[in-house]
Amino acid sequence: MHSGTPNGAPLPQGPQAALLRFSIRFRGIVAILACIVLGYGIYSLQQAKSDVFPEFAPPQAEIQTEAPGLAPEQVEVLVTQPIENNLNGVPGLRMLQSNSVQGLSVVTVTFEPSTNVYRDRQLVAERLATAAGQLPAGVEPPTVTPLTSSTSIVLVAGLTSKVHSLMDLHTIAQFTVTPRLLAVPGVAKVAVFGGKTKSIQIQVHPDALKRFGLGLEDVVAAARHATGVRGAGVIDTANQRIVLETQGQSLTPEEISRTVVKAGPAASVTLGNVATVLDAPEPQVGAGAIDGVPGVVLTISEQYKANTPEVTRRLLAAFAELQPTLAKDGVALRTDLFRPAKFIAVATGNVRNSLLLGGALVIVVLFLFLFDLRTAAISAIAIPLSLLPAVSVLHFLGITMNTMTLGGLAIAIGIVVDDAVVDIENIVRRLRENSRLAQPRPMARVVLDACYEVRSSVVYATVAVVLVAVPVLALPGIAGRLFAPLAVSYGLATVASLVVALTVTPAFAMILFGRGHSNPKDPPLLRWSRGRYETLLHGVVRRPAIILLATLVVVGAGAALIPTFGGTFLPALKEGHYTVHMTAVPGTSVAESVRLGKIATKVMLSLPEVRSVAQRVGRAELADDTNGTHHSEFEVDLNPISAEDAESAPAKIRKALSVIPGVNFAINTFLTERIEETLSGYTSPVVVNIFGNNFDLLDRKAEEVARVLQKVSGAADVQVESPPGMPQLTIKLRPRDLQRWGLTAVGVMDVIRTAYQGDQVGEVYEGNRVFPVLVILDKASRSSVSDVANLPLRSAKGVYLRLGQVADVHESSGRYRIQHQGARRLQTVTSNVSGRDVASFVADAKKAIARNVTFPSGTYVEFRGTAEAQKRAQRALLLNALIAAVGIILLLAIITRNGRNLVLVLANLPFAFVGGVAAVYLSGGVLSLGSMVGFVTLFGVTLRNSILMIAHYRDLVEIEGQPWNLETAVRGAADRLAAIVMTSLVTALGVLPLAIGMREPGREIEGPMAVVILGGLITSMALNLLVLPTLALRYGDFTRKQEDDGLSDTPAQADAGVI
Amino acid sequence: MKKKLGGMIIVVCLAAVVGSAIWGFVQARGEAQPDDDDKPAQTASHISVVDGTSIITLNENAESRKELEVVSLKNRLRTPTLRAYGSVLNLQSLTDLADKYQTAKANLESQKARRDLSQAALARARGLYSQGLHAVSKAQLEAAEETALVDAANLSAAKSQLASLANTAVQAWGSVLGKAVQDASPLLNSLIERQTVLVQVTLRADEVAAKIPDKAYLRMQDGQRIELHFVSPAAAIDPQIQGRSFFYTASADSGLLPGMNVVASVPTGSATPCVEIPAPAIVWLKGHAWAYFRSGPKTFARREIATDTPARDGGYFVKHIADGTQVVSRGAQMLLSEEFRSQIQEEE
Fold first, then answer.
1. What residues of B are in contact with residue A722 (Cβ under 8 Å)?
2. How far apart are CA A237 and CA A1006, in angstroms?
3. Using the beta-carbon criterion (under 8 Å), do A365 and B13 form an inter-chain contact?
4. Is residue B284 part of a domain?
């Protein structure tokens, strides 16, 4: 053994030394503080909100405007445009998108991520007040849908009944269940799909109108009178104020049917004479079915930044309260259709287990290497002491505990324990050396010197490691929002570990080794491996050419692999739950969608993996989805099954569903879908937008683009969004004929709307339940296409006409929806990519479109979708990585203080990556953002070890006065062996459970990251232990130099001054 | 010894780390391939176009072939009918008119008799006076002449009154009923005696019957079908409806009472064989109505159907379709959707 610390060295100075001295002197206080921090950390952990992902959606406001009866084109021009015009130019606006479908306008305003979502929504609400006045009569006021969390849905429940009608079921859902659920803290909204909305309908028989000489407008007027509510005022007496209440409003269908429409000489004509008044469902916009049984599906959304498991728990408690009443009423309640909290529990549980397992493995390794329980304990205590303060700060910042933050902590395990290990390893080594001295120095001094010796490496390396996380933190867009919490938790834990290494570790070392370090010998494993390593290194160091060549070959091979990699934005998440989309041609009725859904449900339920299937058809008021009735979503929940079965489940479901004709199915996991929707609004990875003003031109160009895309290799399912083809009946009024009969266009259109859409004339109440009263044509008269032209109109002179006499009624086809982006019309072509990666496909597609499609002025094309986001994210990552790299190089320059050594460290870095590259290749050759983050971490770990090695060499030469030769190189490397092997193993073992469990739910993102780190650490270790000493000996520059800056006596002080 | 143990431990440790890492990679390798989960499956059918007709061939395992329902069509003779509005007329004015006419007619007879008598008296007086027998004084002759003149004038007044009533009857009730009033025909008697009732049937304003049918039908609210017999075109139309109007009689036993407004169907043209395509079989596409006809055990062809003859409940009567042709009566929209599946856009 070589003796280490020179005796009688001056007491270290500077802030770091002061901190170390304080910690060693007041070790008891440090220990108590550490306990307090631990305790508070545990408290924070219990208080922490959990979610699967951080809030990844940008600040958004969605404005839904119900425009009953308006066709998509009318909605676009009359409703969407005024709203868009008012909203355009709102401060902080990033994107304005809209969809106009039959009877509904949806405008989505996306704000800059830096803005405050509440202020944004306030601005939107202010602008909407103006827009509301510009909307045509009959259109309901625009509503901003409640603010929900990024994932929105917190629970899906279902109601079915064998005794109640669908209308009763909807009434129960609307008036009994929904109010209770909305009262649960954290619930933003409840969308009621399916069932039938009860209304009292005055169903007019057109023939009866003629017989009694009445017009539809007479019925509407009479019905308005029948159901009107009037206040009556008050009487003020000398003593009291007495409130008047008028009663007599018709509340039941019978009462309404007795309303007089026309008082005749002999008898009066009542509503009952010309119409059937009854409880009937409003025209449906959606439907629901649970396991194939028609019923009501409730999708419950949670508030922004709500605690999903907590809200779920409260909701289940609310359901438990409702359950007995509902059961008594003959209503079956299902609350297990979909609960994201289940996945959160599994995912965070899995990551937590990985963390615990990783922690345990780390302790085992520490014990093996240090062969001393106390040493292992001091290193191990650094783990909770670094992670728990990070948790506290995250909690304070309002960041939830999710797979990302937990992942950040998991990666940090390796790093945080590193600091402690480097520290403690040096302390123990120095203490051992000290105990072998004839006159051992005071223990506190040995500990202080030992800590001070490695502190520059610890501090600089930690700063470098934190810097490495900066590019991830600065990722733009959704990627940034997803991964930033990972970087934050990682950075926090790392910084905490630095503080621990400078305070707690020396303090605890003093406390635990205070009674003397009993074993002056190196631990057996260390001794054995050191001997082996020195022999090996001696052999290796003599052959720098071979090492250099081997390094170049390996790096070259690794570099050659990179171009074969594909990229995906996010891997598929294994939630044990799938959202299946079923789409038929636009115009498919609710009944047919329900019928097809029943077939699909039967098929899916026949699979052993599937536990429950809930179907939602079309849309519901205030729901997130604004689909037409041709579109259904199924919540497919799986039985608890193994990870392998869960992996094969989507393929099995897809295969089973493929036998159903007439509908397209798309299967996605809930979270993947939410993320992809937030990115592009579409679930396809490639989205091509074509902007312009002329619909026909847009359609033509979209067709051309689709044709070109189809020819690009790898294109699959190329589709033009919203192709024309929704069946439509056009009623074109003839002005001359209107004039001849003395009719007005608006009057005729009112009659048409009343007849087919229904005109709400009032409300009736039944207890606290309020139902609308509608005037509409009877069912038989409005179900036939050929009867529309026979709709009776009454002219000013009382003459009855058919609608066909004043209008051309002809069948045609219309657009199902009209989209805007940035208040411009757009047509969209989407494509999936199979057999190649998205990024290269997009590059090829762009070239092909530029070559083959010409766009007239005012029309242009744009690529969006996950491909674009991924490219943006990668570009940003690259740029930020460059900035961070400059920072790190500057740091390195401070440590190495020598150009050659700096180049030596930098030149060796690629070697560390080779392992990561090989790992990516072995695990499928796909670069996801997770694996990119892995590389960044790998970089940090390698860098730290290289810095430590170079710094140690420098210390050996400059402080201990060793000559720079083979012996010194081998000895220095052997000194660092324990630290390098330990830190590498510790990091590797910390993430090992994540890598092995990368198939388990919740580790889909961290898994690839862990695999990269694991693979990279193997080469990184080889680099630091074999390549770096060899090359350092050959090319390194550690000759002792005179300090010529004249600012300090020792390099140590120069270092200290920087921090 | 200890050295060996340490060596063993490190070897085992490293082997475990490396081994588990490799195991992890191998396990993960399969799954990390770019997933094609978003790719919709498309295998349920095959679409072909033969002579401009789209034909869907469903695959053997297409689950919902079981869900499709077809009905066999059968031709029936069907007479095209028009929907019309009927009102059972109050015949008081007709009865009054008939009464008046009969009174006037009786009056005419009596006037005629009186004139004949006074003519005869005048002739006799003239004869006696001319024989100069002084059996009749000049004054008496002049009185007889006067009576004869008055009676002749009365007769002509009665005649014109009758003619006027006849005109009124024709004006108010049309030539057939007008004539019936003049003739006091059994038609009139049965109406007046309430054995039959008179129904004015008015077509919709812009509808024209090719020929005026002898029979029309009423459907009562209780489903009873009442046969109407053509009488004549009506003398005036219903000003509120403005269509062509006809008189029909119906048996009074049917329960029709004056003042009732009823809906009538008027057959026009001759009966031709046609099939009824039920409403659930019809899909609308590009402005036309279509139905899917079975063209083989697994194949279905989409053909356009004519929509000029609507049936009740949204279906259509279609000519030139062979008996036994099978039309898809449940699942038509599913087939349509299948045909255009390649254009369906996955959406949110």
1. 345
2. 77
3. yes
4. yes
